[in-house]
Amino acid sequence: MDDPHDRGGATKWGVTIRTLLAKGLDLNGDGVVNRKDIVDMTPNQALEIYRRDYWLKVKGDSLPLPLALIVYDCAVNQGVRRASTILQKSAKAIPDGRIGPKTLVAVQSKWGRGHRWMLNEFCARRAVHYSSLSQITRYGLGWFRRLFDAHANAIYRDEFEKG
User: Which domains does the chain show, CATH number per domain?
Assistant: First the structure.
Protein backbone atom coordinates (compact mmCIF):
# COMPACT_ATOMS: atom_id res chain seq x y z
CA MET A 1 0.00 0.00 0.00
CA ASP A 2 1.24 3.48 -0.81
CA ASP A 3 -1.03 6.18 0.62
CA PRO A 4 0.32 9.57 -0.48
CA HIS A 5 -0.92 11.10 2.81
CA ASP A 6 0.85 8.53 5.01
CA ARG A 7 4.24 9.81 6.17
CA GLY A 8 5.48 6.21 6.38
CA GLY A 9 5.37 5.86 2.61
CA ALA A 10 5.23 2.56 0.76
CA THR A 11 4.19 -0.25 3.09
CA LYS A 12 4.15 -4.05 3.00
CA TRP A 13 2.98 -6.24 5.91
CA GLY A 14 2.89 -3.07 8.00
CA VAL A 15 6.59 -2.29 7.46
CA THR A 16 7.15 1.10 5.86
CA ILE A 17 9.88 2.48 3.67
CA ARG A 18 10.35 5.14 6.35
CA THR A 19 11.24 2.36 8.82
CA LEU A 20 13.73 0.79 6.42
CA LEU A 21 15.36 4.14 5.70
CA ALA A 22 15.58 5.08 9.40
CA LYS A 23 17.23 1.76 10.22
CA GLY A 24 19.35 1.54 7.07
CA LEU A 25 17.85 -1.83 6.16
CA ASP A 26 18.84 -2.79 2.62
CA LEU A 27 16.73 -5.96 2.55
CA ASN A 28 17.46 -6.98 -1.01
CA GLY A 29 21.21 -6.28 -0.77
CA ASP A 30 21.42 -4.00 -3.80
CA GLY A 31 23.35 -1.32 -1.88
CA VAL A 32 20.50 1.17 -1.57
CA VAL A 33 17.42 1.38 0.64
CA ASN A 34 14.43 2.25 -1.53
CA ARG A 35 10.89 1.24 -2.51
CA LYS A 36 12.22 -1.96 -4.12
CA ASP A 37 13.20 -3.20 -0.65
CA ILE A 38 9.55 -2.96 0.37
CA VAL A 39 8.38 -4.71 -2.80
CA ASP A 40 10.98 -7.51 -2.42
CA MET A 41 10.57 -7.95 1.37
CA THR A 42 9.88 -11.53 2.43
CA PRO A 43 7.52 -12.53 5.25
CA ASN A 44 10.51 -13.72 7.29
CA GLN A 45 12.27 -10.37 6.89
CA ALA A 46 9.13 -8.56 8.08
CA LEU A 47 8.81 -10.90 11.07
CA GLU A 48 12.44 -10.30 12.03
CA ILE A 49 11.93 -6.53 11.88
CA TYR A 50 8.89 -6.83 14.13
CA ARG A 51 10.72 -9.10 16.59
CA ARG A 52 14.01 -7.20 16.75
CA ASP A 53 12.83 -3.61 16.40
CA TYR A 54 9.57 -3.71 18.34
CA TRP A 55 8.93 -6.80 20.51
CA LEU A 56 12.43 -6.96 21.97
CA LYS A 57 12.68 -3.16 22.36
CA VAL A 58 9.53 -3.04 24.52
CA LYS A 59 10.70 -6.08 26.51
CA GLY A 60 7.73 -8.13 25.34
CA ASP A 61 9.11 -11.30 26.93
CA SER A 62 9.35 -9.54 30.33
CA LEU A 63 5.82 -8.11 30.42
CA PRO A 64 2.61 -9.99 31.26
CA LEU A 65 1.47 -11.29 27.87
CA PRO A 66 -1.85 -9.39 27.65
CA LEU A 67 -0.04 -6.15 28.38
CA ALA A 68 2.89 -7.05 26.13
CA LEU A 69 0.50 -7.45 23.20
CA ILE A 70 -0.92 -3.93 23.48
CA VAL A 71 2.45 -2.33 24.22
CA TYR A 72 3.94 -4.10 21.19
CA ASP A 73 1.05 -3.01 18.96
CA CYS A 74 1.52 0.55 20.17
CA ALA A 75 5.26 0.36 19.43
CA VAL A 76 4.60 -0.80 15.88
CA ASN A 77 1.97 1.87 15.24
CA GLN A 78 3.16 4.81 17.35
CA GLY A 79 6.85 4.08 17.93
CA VAL A 80 8.88 2.27 20.57
CA ARG A 81 9.62 5.41 22.58
CA ARG A 82 5.96 6.45 22.66
CA ALA A 83 4.84 2.93 23.67
CA SER A 84 7.50 2.82 26.38
CA THR A 85 6.50 6.24 27.72
CA ILE A 86 2.81 5.35 27.76
CA LEU A 87 3.64 2.15 29.63
CA GLN A 88 5.74 4.05 32.15
CA LYS A 89 3.04 6.65 32.75
CA SER A 90 0.46 3.88 33.11
CA ALA A 91 2.64 2.12 35.70
CA LYS A 92 3.50 5.39 37.49
CA ALA A 93 7.19 4.92 36.62
CA ILE A 94 9.59 7.63 35.48
CA PRO A 95 8.67 8.29 31.83
CA ASP A 96 12.05 8.28 30.11
CA GLY A 97 10.96 6.29 27.05
CA ARG A 98 13.17 3.26 27.79
CA ILE A 99 11.89 0.15 29.50
CA GLY A 100 14.40 -1.01 32.08
CA PRO A 101 14.38 -2.81 35.44
CA LYS A 102 12.61 0.01 37.32
CA THR A 103 9.83 0.16 34.75
CA LEU A 104 9.39 -3.61 34.88
CA VAL A 105 9.12 -3.54 38.69
CA ALA A 106 6.52 -0.74 38.49
CA VAL A 107 4.58 -2.66 35.84
CA GLN A 108 4.54 -5.84 37.93
CA SER A 109 3.34 -3.87 40.94
CA LYS A 110 0.45 -2.24 39.04
CA TRP A 111 -0.34 -5.47 37.19
CA GLY A 112 -0.66 -7.30 40.49
CA ARG A 113 -3.22 -4.76 41.68
CA GLY A 114 -5.51 -5.01 38.66
CA HIS A 115 -4.99 -6.38 35.18
CA ARG A 116 -8.05 -4.71 33.68
CA TRP A 117 -7.12 -1.36 35.20
CA MET A 118 -3.62 -1.50 33.72
CA LEU A 119 -4.86 -2.51 30.25
CA ASN A 120 -7.51 0.25 30.29
CA GLU A 121 -5.04 2.86 31.54
CA PHE A 122 -2.54 2.06 28.79
CA CYS A 123 -5.19 2.14 26.06
CA ALA A 124 -6.75 5.37 27.36
CA ARG A 125 -3.36 7.08 27.29
CA ARG A 126 -2.75 5.73 23.79
CA ALA A 127 -6.12 7.13 22.66
CA VAL A 128 -5.26 10.55 24.09
CA HIS A 129 -2.08 10.59 22.03
CA TYR A 130 -3.95 9.63 18.85
CA SER A 131 -6.41 12.45 19.53
CA SER A 132 -3.60 14.99 19.64
CA LEU A 133 -2.33 14.18 16.15
CA SER A 134 -3.05 16.43 13.18
CA GLN A 135 -4.00 13.46 10.98
CA ILE A 136 -6.81 12.36 13.35
CA THR A 137 -9.57 13.24 10.87
CA ARG A 138 -7.95 11.24 8.08
CA TYR A 139 -6.76 8.17 10.00
CA GLY A 140 -8.49 8.36 13.40
CA LEU A 141 -11.21 5.83 12.67
CA GLY A 142 -8.61 3.24 11.63
CA TRP A 143 -6.35 4.06 14.57
CA PHE A 144 -9.19 3.67 17.05
CA ARG A 145 -10.35 0.42 15.45
CA ARG A 146 -6.81 -0.88 15.81
CA LEU A 147 -6.68 0.28 19.43
CA PHE A 148 -10.02 -1.32 20.32
CA ASP A 149 -9.00 -4.58 18.63
CA ALA A 150 -5.71 -4.61 20.57
CA HIS A 151 -7.57 -3.91 23.82
CA ALA A 152 -10.15 -6.63 23.16
CA ASN A 153 -7.42 -9.15 22.30
CA ALA A 154 -5.50 -8.26 25.47
CA ILE A 155 -8.64 -8.66 27.62
CA TYR A 156 -9.39 -11.99 25.95
CA ARG A 157 -5.82 -13.21 26.52
CA ASP A 158 -5.96 -12.10 30.15
CA GLU A 159 -9.23 -13.97 30.73
CA PHE A 160 -7.86 -17.04 28.94
CA GLU A 161 -4.72 -17.06 31.11
CA LYS A 162 -6.80 -16.83 34.28
CA GLY A 163 -8.58 -20.01 33.24
Answer: 1-55 (no CATH), 63-163 (1.20.141.10)
